[in-house]
Design goal:
It is a single chain. The chain is of the alpha/beta class and 538 residues long. The protein folds into three domains: 7-358, Alpha-Beta Barrel (TIM Barrel), CATH 3.20.20.80; 391-493, Methane Monooxygenase Hydroxylase, Chain G, domain 1 (Up-down Bundle), CATH 1.20.58; 496-537, no CATH class. Helices cover 36% and strands 10% of the residues. A nine-stranded parallel beta sheet has the order 5-4-3-2-1-13-12-9-6. Strands 7-8 form a two-stranded antiparallel ribbon. A two-stranded antiparallel ribbon has the order 10-11. Helix 5 packs across helix 7 (153-169). It is globular, with a radius of gyration of 24 Å. The termini are far apart. Bound molecules: 2-acetamido-2-deoxy-beta-D-glucopyranose (8 copies).
Length: 538
């Protein structure tokens, strides 16, 4: 299983509104993919990382069959296990293979060792004479070395260069060689316009690395976790923003220097990376590949409150939609959508550490899903994911009073049809606040055409891709919805209700005690924009 370390994930100094970042460019990913020999169209894609600290891991051949069944065609491995690669060769998948951190020293100090590694690990699965010329899509040398194994930093670039040279000697320079970096090397990521690389790494390591990557058309690999930005922000980062959930425009994060609006933390992290690159005077736009991102589905109740199945489902589903369907790029680099690898395929139950460490997987080790991820329009990624339907339900994280108040609003001023949750009606059971509120929220959300902000409910609502319908209770927006159950009156759009909701949200946000200073600074940045606008328009 290699020496993977995720220490870098939680070590960054996040400031302000807590955006971290990462970057990604897909015009260059395009080159990367086509240069890498047959990836096809060069469209942004979603892959999955495969860690192996799993009890009774599927055999290599079962794993290959499983990937085929789930239509997963891009994977990242943390080593280059020949048994697994042999099996994958028949699955049609393409794999990033890894050099574990504990092999860096040997490879970085001896070009001959690097060359032997390529002969043993890569050549059998690549090149004109192998049966799977496209199997290996890239080589990831080490993982988060600046934080996980800083002592190996001096040999990291030499290792990359030796491996690239060995590949070139074998006519395989089309396989890019890079190293996944932790986002924590980017400091002051929010607002993104102020980001910069850690100065103690910039000249000695990052600049030469970027020069080599540019020379070899290899991407900058980054592990990017909005989840950790949220966790480290002491409640200041809106959880919705971290999960790509729409916020009302008035609540969007705005970078006061660029006036760019950020609808999600992921894009802000990427833009911070772009800014940091620009501050190094890196002229060529280096393509970025997100080699890890994800969300845990379970964690310590007290310490890791955002680790829940609903949140993991929401983040990963929205991520897939963002990358594969919407592919907007970032506010600074519109259209340049980075490809991503979801961390991770299986729950690694053998991983030590916080409870969440063992709960990042989409599937249990035996291949049963941890939660049903419905990835819209993702070219069949994850097999049966077919729906782009989303629903609005009561959030796990909101307290019951807030849920009740929001339901009262939805069924009252919001004019949702709440007949179905009255006694004797189809959605009365189960008779509890959250179930009833979910129906009311979804009714409102669907009636608003799922408009941005219409599932906010002062933080009590959350978007899900899992159809919440049950028994005889069919939620609006469900494909189970038929003539027979259609309710009328769901068609109320009025600017008054939106305004009412908006101002309530402002009250709630500004009323949060904890981290008030940070919120205040954020609000100031918003106000700068508002004031700037009024200067412009009046
Ligand atoms: C590939 O196979 C052919 C025929 O077996 C052989 O002539 C050629 O030398 C091989 N090329 C490489 C690079 O191994
Ligand atoms: C590499 O490719 C060149 C030309 O395409 C060819 O002449 C040479 O023999 C190849 N080398 C190997 C090791 O396959
Ligand atoms: C910058 O990098 C150095 C060397 O890796 C590290 O010791 C330091 O803590 C980092 N600074 C910040 C603010 O993260
Ligand atoms: C990249 O290429 C340029 C020009 O050929 C060269 O000067 C530079 O040293 C190369 N960078 C690295 C890290 O090899
Ligand atoms: C980038 O270029 C600017 C203007 O030429 C210069 O002032 C600055 O020091 C350069 N930054 C780096 C990191 O080289
Ligand atoms: C996807 O559908 C196939 C065929 O209908 C089924 O065998 C498989 O178990 C399904 N996979 C999941 C994850 O539901
Ligand atoms: C709606 O009902 C009509 C008449 O009962 C039927 O012909 C039609 O197929 C139904 N539509 C749907 C979407 O079920
Ligand atoms: C809602 O109202 C709009 C505009 O009046 C109309 O176009 C739409 O068809 C209505 N939708 C439903 C479900 O009645």
């Amino acid at each position: 299983m290699g020496s993977r370390s995720r220490g870098g994930r939680s070590s960054s100094g996040l400031l302000l509104l807590s955006l971290h970042l990462l970057l990604g460019l897909h015009s260059s990913l395009r080159c990367f993919v086509s240069a890498a020999g047959g990836g096809g169209s060069g469209e942004p894609y979603v892959g999955v990382t495969i860690g192996t600290a799993v009890t009774n891991l599927l055999s290599p051949s079962d794993l290959a069959a499983f990937l085929r069944a789930q239509r997963i065609t891009r994977v990242r491995l943390y080593d280059a296990d020949p048994r697994l690669l042999s099996a994958l060769a028949s699955s049609g998948a393409r794999a990033i293979v890894g050099v574990p951190n504990d092999e860096l020293l040997a490879l970085g100090s001896s070009p001959a060792t690097a060359s032997a590694w390529v002969s043993r690990r890569v050549l059998p699965f690549a090149g004109a004479n192998s049966s799977s010329p496209g199997l290996i899509s890239a080589i990831a040398v080490g993982d988060e070395v600046p934080t996980a194994l800083p002592s190996a930093l001096p040999v990291l670039l030499p290792a990359i260069q030796s491996l690239a040279a060995a590949l070139a000697a074998a006519n395989l320079s089309s396989i890019p060689v890079s190293t996944p970096l932790p986002f924590s090397i980017v400091l002051d990521p929010f607002p993104p316009s102020q980001a910069y690389f850690n100065q103690s790494l910039a000249k000695s390591f990052i600049l030469p690395l970027l020069s080599h990557l540019a020379n070899t058309s290899a991407p900058l690999m980054l592990n990017l976790y909005p989840y950790y930005s949220l966790m480290q922000s002491s409640g200041v980062v809106p959880v919705d923003n971290a999960m790509f959930k729409p916020l009302p425009p008035s609540l969007e994060m705005v970078d006061p220097n660029t006036l760019l609006h950020y609808t999600n933390v992921f894009d802000a992290m990427l833009d911070a990376v772009y800014v940091a690159l620009k501050n190094l005077n890196v002229s060529a736009p280096v393509p970025v590949l997100v080699t890890e991102t994800g969300w845990p589905s379970y964690g310590d109740r007290k310490e890791e409150p955002y680790a829940s199945r609903d949140n993991a489902n929401t983040y990963n589903s929205n991520l897939i939609k963002h990358v594969v369907t919407d592919k907007p790029g970032t506010p600074m680099r519109p259209g340049a959508q980075a490809s991503v690898y979801i961390y991770e395929l299986f729950n690694e139950d053998l991983r030590p550490g916080p409870v969440s460490e063992a709960n990042w997987g989409l599937f249990h080790g035996n291949g049963t899903p941890v939660y049903l991820l419905h990835a819209s329009g993702a070219d069949g990624f994850l097999g049966n994911a077919t729906t782009d339907r989303t629903f609005c339900i009561a959030s796990d994280d909101a307290d019951e009073k807030a849920v009740q108040a929001a339901m009262d609003w939805a069924c009252g001023p919001g004019r949702s049809d709440c007949t179905a949750i009255q006694p004797g009606e189809g959605c009365y059971q189960p008779n509890d606040v959250r179930s009833h509120a979910s129906f009311a929220f979804d009714t409102y959300y669907q009636s608003q055409g799922k408009a941005g902000g219409s599932c906010y409910f002062q933080g009590a609502g959350m978007v899900t891709t899992t159809d919440p319908s049950h028994d005889s209770c069919i939620f609006p927006g469900s494909k189970l919805y038929s003539n027979a159950t259609k309710s009328d009156g769901a068609n109320t759009t009025s600017s008054q209700t939106s305004d009412a909701e908006g101002s309530a949200i402002w009250r709630l946000r500004t009323g949060r005690g904890e981290g008030f200073l940070l919120v205040f600074r954020f609000l100031l940045s918003v106000m700068v924009v508002i004031m700037t606008n009024s200067n412009l328009w009046t």
